[in-house]
Batch of 2 targets.
Target 1
Amino acid sequence: MAAEMSGGDLSRLRQLNALAVIKALQGQDSLTLTEVAKRTGLSRASTEDVVRELLQKGWVTEAGATAGGVGRPARRYRFRAEAGRVLGVDIGGHKIRAVVADLDGTVLQSARVPVAPEMGRLERLEAVDRAVTECLEGAGLTGGEIWASGVGTTGLVDGAGRVLLSEALPEWTGVDLAAHVRRLAPAPVLVENDSKLAALAECWRGVARYAKDMVFLLAGLRTGAGLVIDGKLHRGFANASGEIGALPVLGWIRAQEHLSAANGEAGGEAGDVFAAARGGDKAALAAVRRYVKDLALGASALVLTLDPQMVVVGGGFSRSADVLIEPLKRELDRWCIRTPEVRMSALGDEAVVLGAVRLALDDVEDRVLDGRSPLVSHL
Amino acid sequence: MAAEMSGGDLSRLRQLNALAVIKALQGQDSLTLTEVAKRTGLSRASTEDVVRELLQKGWVTEAGATAGGVGRPARRYRFRAEAGRVLGVDIGGHKIRAVVADLDGTVLQSARVPVAPEMGRLERLEAVDRAVTECLEGAGLTGGEIWASGVGTTGLVDGAGRVLLSEALPEWTGVDLAAHVRRLAPAPVLVENDSKLAALAECWRGVARYAKDMVFLLAGLRTGAGLVIDGKLHRGFANASGEIGALPVLGWIRAQEHLSAANGEAGGEAGDVFAAARGGDKAALAAVRRYVKDLALGASALVLTLDPQMVVVGGGFSRSADVLIEPLKRELDRWCIRTPEVRMSALGDEAVVLGAVRLALDDVEDRVLDGRSPLVSHL
């Protein structure tokens, strides 16, 4: 509550100012001190202090100079996104994705290892090892050079990085993913549910960048949700938010069955049904309609609960936006008091792994703030 | 983002410190400077500065002295809760409640005017006038002495204090409650949905004081919900959060009908059914069971969406906790991944009007913070 400037507060303030300068420089080629001061709202003197400190610590470097109209050219500074590396991993039913990103969140290297939904725990963890190892090798890094790792998985995850409950993957309940990934890269490992990470990614790099409250719908072989409330990922008291699928009347449990039923005994992928619907096939159109009705029922419960600014539809089926989005809007209109803006994800398959990168970067930034920056040990 | 201390920041900091001292003193008889410093975490010197300023402005007054062991007795200070007055109004189907409270939120005077659900707009607004006038007169105040008013009503409310949609009360859609109450007390008027205000009250003075995330269920002739997320009332993009009742499959629309059906053609109140159930009447027990099943279905959708720490049940039916709470917990257990703590409201009938007082006090405190304190014009 108290906002007086004690010694601790002052050092906190310096860290907040440092983070403000870093955020201003991130994603820019380079800025002058004047430009940094303008973007952060800091005074010229404070800006100089902070930039000097960040130069010393290795977060910022000089980047040539701009020739001014008169007088001597202004020095330019840039964020050293290359100062550190984070790892992002997406563990899915059909694939394992691993990426290495710099401190701007730019993906430098990625690897993908196909897996099958019915694989057991050991086989899936071996595939994780292969994806991470391949990705690190491709980036020319050892695990010790990673500052933080983010991991996305299906199922409920506890605060310590363990899978509490997974119904989609066999033998997945109880697996300690944080410990497993820490063997490969001995930095902090943050583990989170895949729908929640996709929500995070949509607010960071996706179509929900300007939304404060957002519902992310994972529409694919599984149906799930991730919530961003007041600009923050809403996890819930036991990290079990967004689990509306547990309520049978809301239709998510059976939603996907309409698509597999349309494929009949011959089998085939859900994508085939969307393709047939696109071609005007009546049975396929009816199956998609039934699927959307069930998807929209659960989505309406989320929307009526939260009244979000935006709903973002992602997951494998978001590629079929052309046959999904209009019927989905119509169904939401039917149930919701106010239908929010409905957007299809532009991140597609990348959403979860990008969310994992964001989670890792959040951890790195927390450590800038509390003074436990990995730079101390890496410079 | 920037946290540097500009002139504006310093004055903001002084205001935050002032509010910290006020919060420390509120609800206490009196404190010494040492005690204030300890509770706020401010230094002795800053505490003295802030208390001196608050004395000058009339928020704080001296309150005798404590005889110390040695040396001269320490001066004591207390918050002048009597420095200002706020008004709270609850506009319901069956009653209008108005209260006057001091700046501690202590209710000093209250009035209650019975109304009927079928009354039209003018008749209901006249009842509001009577309740407010009676309450002000009882407190010996004129409308001009009120610093802020909070108003609770059924229905959806916009940001300007107008009822956007009310299905429960006839001719209530479109009424400009802020303008109406401002005629009676020309200070700022904040209008909010009644379930949302009850949620606010439970987190302030009720059973949810220690819950960061909380779902309030209004269980009465209507069923509604209010959400507190991360310690703040969650309103939604268009103030339409918690409206899960709009989804027929979630049962809230029909929930209450089970109770009226149990009373049969003879009529009677829902309370009669609860009383009969308490006495072991089989038909009444079955009706209560059906009611609880429907209440729990919608509540489960809220819980599965948010994974809150606590569910608080309020509204008229919360008086029948003994026959409601155990069946409700069992039904929640059936659907929820993690059943949160379920508590009955201890505020009962007072919850909405107390939430209205809290809303008014929030406005007063905002004006302490931004320097537009009503004290300036009232001292």
Target 2
Amino acid sequence: MPTPAGRPVDPSSLLPAEARALFRSGLVTPTSGWSSGYAQANLIIVPKAQAFDVLLFAQRNPKPCPVLGVLDAGETSGALLAGGDIRTDVPKYVVYQDGRKVDEPTDITDHWRDDLVTFIVGCSFTFESALQANGIHVAHIDQGVNVPMYQTSVRCEPAGEMAGPLVVSMRPIPASQVADAVRVTSRYPAVHGAPVHVGNPAELGIADLGRPDFGDPVRIPEGHVPVFWACGVTPQAAVMESRPALAIAHAPGHMLITDARDSAYQVP
Amino acid sequence: MPTPAGRPVDPSSLLPAEARALFRSGLVTPTSGWSSGYAQANLIIVPKAQAFDVLLFAQRNPKPCPVLGVLDAGETSGALLAGGDIRTDVPKYVVYQDGRKVDEPTDITDHWRDDLVTFIVGCSFTFESALQANGIHVAHIDQGVNVPMYQTSVRCEPAGEMAGPLVVSMRPIPASQVADAVRVTSRYPAVHGAPVHVGNPAELGIADLGRPDFGDPVRIPEGHVPVFWACGVTPQAAVMESRPALAIAHAPGHMLITDARDSAYQVP
């Protein structure tokens, strides 16, 4: 991709602030592979009147909704995006009114209100690097597509007005590496942690792995087991179901690139 | 201690529901050593109007304020205390009005309001069992006193009206076992996790280890290093400083005994 100066650069080598500046100046792209080593994040923005319900929903459903940071009402920057602006620094947003998608802007300045509270929620991109570093292939990266995501028949623990289904992402893992994948991802509880389900998709109410609700289907190689992790799209599904007057999220795959290092979320 | 029927029982062998029933019927005692294997918890109860600030304070300060559960406004029971009643099932409470302690009742039914939200916050008793199981002596248990707790000069990340100092607990650990103590407790992020400080108390603004702000002093054996963990009294200190009209907490050492097993909070 070109920089503003026209020279090609490797997006994986950009510092988060440099990446955010490019998005601020109008670049629209999925962020997979950008700013290697830095945590990317889901976004959910709601009016202060809904903020307690959203935060409580996250507390009660920490696997799909691991909160990395919360900006105060009206605040547009913070430690996770130093010098940045949450209204412009994500490549693409989704705006919901009464639970319906009404806009997919690249800048939400026109939608901004002083009572909006921004939740920055962990993303599985962080543990995918750790999987690869441990010799476990990530199929959707190898196949050059988005991770497949599915609404399940599992209900989240509700909180006030917020209620909805658990959304999961799926990665096919060789049977001999399932235990390693569990071990590696369980060290990242702040970015969805260990899988929620290994094997039979029907038990999650998923009829056809080839037809994900979000993202792209992936081919499941012979001898691989479908492994399911809680997904940061879950709060968006709850917003769609609980229908607050206004909610803003990132567009799937178009994440906030934060200044936090992936390694900061590893335990123990 | 006697049961209602008069026969002596070992408090460590009581199920949580049995222990809560004894407290409900009027028994007042510190809970250290009770219901072995089950998680004990700190309590902070505030009106709904303050609940977002308290939950956000906890989110921003997860080491001192690891939230295990939140009851809805007016709710008096929940999965962590099945069949129980949060107004009666803790041996002793502290009631704050405008940040000042006004009562230390054994039952808060008279103070209850339908807008009160209960936060159940993890407690280091959980990792103390793990320390002992790993061959690390816990001095205050060996010496038969309460753990010493200190207000530090470290400020918590504020949230709305909630602001205050980090409160820490201190355990002297043999120099050769400090690394083990870090390793063991870091596996319990939901109950304060790894230490926040090892060694020199002056750097935390603690002038005299012999004069704790809460709990009892402990003797520090030769060759032991003072090791400091974030403490669940921290939200009470913030309540004292931020002065909501009403707040209710457990009395130090008189915890809520939950139905959750200690092992549920171990990672990975």
